[in-house]
Design a protein that fits this description.
The chain is globular, with a radius of gyration of 20 Å. It has helices at 57-74, 84-100, 148-152, 163-166, 180-186, 199-210, 212-218, 232-236, 244-250, 269-283, 287-296, 333-341; strands at 43-50, 80-81, 122-130, 136-144, 169-174, 224-229, 304-308. The protein has a single domain (21-354), classed as 3-Layer(aba) Sandwich (Rossmann fold), CATH 3.40.50. It has 12 helices and 7 strands. Helices cover 32% and strands 12% of the residues. With 360 residues, the protein is of the alpha/beta class. Bound molecules: guanosine-5'-triphosphate and magnesium ion. Guanosine-5'-triphosphate is lined by residues 51, 53-59, 104-105, 107-108, 147-148, 231, 233-234, 310-312, 315-316. Magnesium ion (MG) binds at residues 57-58, 107-108, 145. Residues 1-33 are annotated as: Disordered. This is Double-GTPase 2 domain-containing protein. Residues 47-257 form the Double-GTPase domain.
C-alpha cells in the first residue's frame, strides 16, 4: 500500500501479542522488552502454527526457517534472527537436534510449564522490501510455535493463546491419519500409530480461541487460515499401494499435490492445489473437517486455503531421520500465500500492485 507511515496503523505489531502497537516506540508494550533494531515503522508479519500433538508443527518450523533463508538468498536479501533469543532458541530447540544430530524433536512443552520456550516467538529480519508497490519498509517475520497439548485441551487461562486472534495467518497442520474418516479408510495400508487428538476436535478448539464470529462482529480482521495436510509423504507412498483407488489418485503425476514447481505457489498453482485438496478431502470423506471450516470459519469471513506438505519427505526411521536426508515438499506455500500478497519475494518483476487481495 502506498501510504505514508503515520497513515498505516497496524503495520507494526507487538511480536509477543501480535497486536498493533505504536509504531514509534522501541519497547514491546506487553512484554516491556526491547524490540529488535529497526522495529519502529516496520511491517511485522505474524504467523502462528496450530495443530494436535505430533501433527508436525515444530519440524515444520525447523525446515521452514531454512527454506525461507534460501529463498531470501535467491532474492539477494539476508534473512537473519532479529535478536539473540531467536538465534539461541532456533539453534537449541530446532536446528541442533534436527539438522545436526539428525534426530526428531521433543514434544513442545505446554505453555504453563517453565520450559515453554515457545512463549518467546522466533523473530526474523527479512530486510527492506517494497510493500505492495509502495514504499520500502523493513519487514520482520514472527513465527509462533505452539504445544499441541495446549490446543488439545485448552489451558485454564485461555488468554495466553490470544495471539491467534491477531495473527495474519494461522497454519493449521493436521496428520491425515488423525482425521477419523481417513484413518478408517487407510487402515492396514499405512501405520496409524501416533499421538495426538482428532484433527476436527483440535480445529474446533482453535476456532474457539480465535472466535471468528466475535471478531467479525467487532469489525476486527480475521486471521487467514491455511489448512494443511502434513506428513504428506505418507499419503504419497500410497501411489505404490495395492489399494487400486489410492494408487490411482496418488499416482497422478500431473496433479498439483504431486509436484513442486519453481517458482513455488505461483500462477495457477495455488488455485489448482486448493481445489485438488478440497476434493481429496471430500474423497477421503473428511466431511466433518470441511464442514467445520465452512461453518465456523469461512462463514465469518476467514480466508481459508487448503495445502499439503511434508517437512521430511519420507517416514523417519524410529527416532532418527532417514539416512538419505530430508526432502521437504511444499513447506513454503502457506507463508508464500501471505508474503506474495504483500508484494514480498515475488518471482517476477511485474507490477506488484497487480497482485491479489491485500491483507495489510
Ligand atoms: N512421515 C512424516 N512424519 C513426520 C513429518 N513431520 C513430522 N513427522 C512425525 O511427527 C512427529 C512429531 O513432529 P513434531 O514436529 O515434533 O510435532 P508437533 O506438532 O510439534 O508436536 P507437539 O510439539 O507435541 O505439539 C515427528 O517426530 C515425526 O515422527 C513428515 O513430514 N513426514
Ligand atoms: Mg512441537
Amino acid at each position: 500500500m502506498n501510504q505514508p507511515m503515520d497513515d498505516s496503523p497496524g503495520l507494526t505489531r507487538d511480536p509477543y501479542t501480535f497486536q498493533p502497537m505504536d509504531p514509534t516506540v522501541t519497547m514491546s508494550p506487553s512484554a516491556n522488552r526491547e524490540l529488535p533494531d529497526g522495529w519502529p515503522g516496520s511491517l511485522t508479519v505474524c504467523v502462528a502454527l496450530a495443530g494436535a500433538r505430533a501433527s508436525g508443527k515444530s519440524l515444520y518450523v525447523a525446515v521452514l526457517v531454512k527454506l525461507l533463508r534460501q529463498l531470501a538468498d535467491e532474492h539477494g536479501v539476508v534473512m537473519k534472527p532479529a535478536n539473540r533469543q531467536t538465534k539461541d532458541s532456533y539453534a537449541v530447540n530446532y536446528e541442533n537436534p534436527f539438522f545436526e544430530e539428525m534426530g526428531l524433536l521433543s514434544s513442545t512443552p505446554p505453555v504453563s510449564s517453565a520450559e515453554a520456550y515457545q512463549r518467546d516467538p522466533l523473530i526474523y529480519d527479512l530486510g527492506f522490501h517494497v510493500i505492495n508497490g509502495g514504499e520500502q519498509r523493513k519487514v520482520f517475520l514472527v513465527l509462533r510455535d505452539v504445544a499441541g497439548e495446549d490446543l488439545e485441551s485448552l489451558p485454564e487461562d485461555q488468554s495466553v493463546l490470544d495471539f491467534f486472534q491477531w495473527a495474519h495467518e494461522v497454519i493449521y497442520l493436521f496428520d491425515p491419519l488423525k482425521v477419523s474418516e481417513i484413518r478408517l479408510l487407510l487402515e492396514g495400508t499405512v501405520s496409524a500409530e501416533s499421538l495426538g487428538a482428532d484433527a476436527t476436535d483440535v480445529l474446533n478448539n482453535l476456532l474457539q480461541v480465535i472466535r471468528p464470529g466475535a471478531l467479525a462482529q467487532e469489525g476486527r480482521p480475521r486471521p487467514r487460515l491455511a489448512v494443511a495436510l502434513s506428513k504428506f509423504d505418507t499419503l504419497r507412498s500410497l501411489a505404490n499401494s495395492a489399494n487400486e483407488g489410492w494408487a490411482e489418485i496418488m499416482g497422478n503425476r500431473g496433479a498439483a499435490f504431486n509436484r513442486q514447481l519453481e517458482p513455488s505457489y505461483w500462477g495457477s498453482d495455488p488455485e489448482l492445489l486448493n481445489e485438488e485438496i478440497r476434493s481429496m478431502l471430500l474423497r477421503l470423506d473428511a466431511r466433518t473437517l470441511l464442514n467445520t471450516v465452512r461453518q465456523e470459519a469461512e462463514i465469518y469471513g476467514m480466508d481459508v486455503r487448503y495445502f499439503v506438505n511434508s517437512s521430511l519427505g519420507s517416514q523417519p526411521q524410529g527416532s532418527r531421520l532417514d539416512r538419505t536426508g530430508i526432502a521437504p515438499f511444499r513447506v513454503l506455500d502457506p507463508v508464500l500465500w501471505l508474503l506474495y500478497d504483500a508484494g514480498i519475494f515475488w518471482p517476477t518483476t511485474e507490477n506488484h500492485q497487480q497482485r491479489g487481495e491485500q491483507w495489510l
